[in-house]
Design goal:
Structural class: alpha/beta
Bound molecules: arginine
Helix content: 25-40%
Distance between the termini: 40 Å
Shape: elongated
Radius of gyration: 20 Å
Largest sheet: 9 strands, mixed
């Protein structure tokens, strides 16, 4: 049973990868800055360190024949940049003094399994964060490039400089602030609890009640995971079941493998709309602030992005984007 699940997940991600990898021409081009959406890189995020190796390797593989510099180990050079740019992995310094992972581009790391903030639609990454990033890129005179990856790979992508910003409905937390710098917050999120319609769980306190022992589904390494692990699992009051996607946790709830799912309110609404027999409890686990994660060393880019975000907040652009995807209750 466990194996089956893993295989199914693997297959699903492979399909998604294949879909996005051959996604054709970007449709987000009508956004300011345009979006060169590709998740072709996502496979390389999983533990390969080709950069270090390829520079010293003598025996270059036939595929490398377009790389004249010898140290282009970045996956970006292969799939996503097939559109003609030479060595896309070169960082570039702009007139404004900031450098980006790829010259002329704003590279955004995300996990496009979090509607309405980011999701895959027609082979492209759409959603609030994609539009905000396109608007920021437009202000900076950069083209937007979106790299889809596991949620817990995003901070590493930003830290290593592979990505310029992590934009993924990401909550500002003290632990993450040790790893990355957060921009000003552009939205708020609420951790909510999804249960089956006939669930005995009726509010947040039920989860940590003496002798409760519920199984709680979460997306791995999200704040839903972090808080419930602290409050419930570490306290010996229940178990956390961690999934690579929120939607998979919701499926596990549907099939009775978990008793509830703790996740951000907007994706919760999107998932519950898709699955019969589930509801979101009125009670709230915690309210939090979303911001873009950026490299601590790249202060010039941080300033530029932060200023752009501030302008987009001040002129109502961000609110307009939020309103487009989130309908007020
Ligand atoms: N707000 C939560 C966090 O920062 C969940 C974010 C998940 N985002 C995503 N794109 N999957 O941990």
């Amino acid at each position: 049973m466990k194996m089956k699940k893993v295989t199914a997940l693997l297959l699903a991600s492979l399909t998604a990868l294949a879909m996005t990898a051959c996604g054709g021409t970007p449709t987000a081009g009508d956004n300011a800055g345009g979006a060169d959406n590709s998740s072709a890189e996502s496979s390389s995020e999983e533990g390969s360190s080709s950069e270090e190796e390829s520079s010293s390797e003598e025996n270059s593989s036939p595929e490398d024949n377009d790389s004249s510099e010898g140290n282009d180990g970045s996956a970006e050079g292969e799939g996503a940049e097939a559109s003609g740019e030479a060595e896309g992995s070169e960082a570039g310094t702009s007139a404004d003094g900031f450098t980006t992972a790829v010259e002329g581009k704003l590279t955004m790391a995300t996990n496009a399994a979090f509607p309405p903030y980011e999701y895959v639609e027609g082979g492209q990454i759409a959603g609030i964060d994609a539009e905000i990033a396109a608007a920021v890129a437009g202000k900076l005179g950069l083209e937007l490039q979106i790299d889809d990856m596991e949620f817990d790979s995003i901070t590493e992508a930003v830290k290593s400089g592979k990505a310029d910003i992590g934009l993924a409905g990401m909550t500002i937390t003290p632990d993450r602030q040790e790893e990355v710098d957060f921009t000003i917050s552009y939205a708020t999120g609420v951790q909510v609890i999804i249960v089956a319609e006939d669930s005995p769980i009726t509010n947040v306190d039920d989860l940590s009640a003496e002798g409760a022992n519920y199984v709680i589904g979460v997306q791995r390494n999200t704040t839903g995971d972090i808080y419930t692990t602290q409050d419930i699992e570490d306290a010996g009051l229940g178990t956390i079941d961690r999934y690579s996607k929120g939607a998979d946790a919701v499926q596990a709830l549907k099939t009775g493998k978990v008793d509830c799912v703790v996740i951000d309110n907007e994706p919760a609404k999107a998932f519950v709309n898709e699955v019969e027999g589930l509801k979101i409890l009125d009670t709230e686990y915690i309210t939090e602030d979303y911001a873009a994660a950026m490299n601590k060393e790249n202060t010039a880019l941080y300033e530029a992005v932060n200023n752009a975000l501030q302008e987009l907040i001040d002129d109502g652009t961000i609110q307009g984007i939020l309103d487009k995807y989130i309908t007020a209750e």
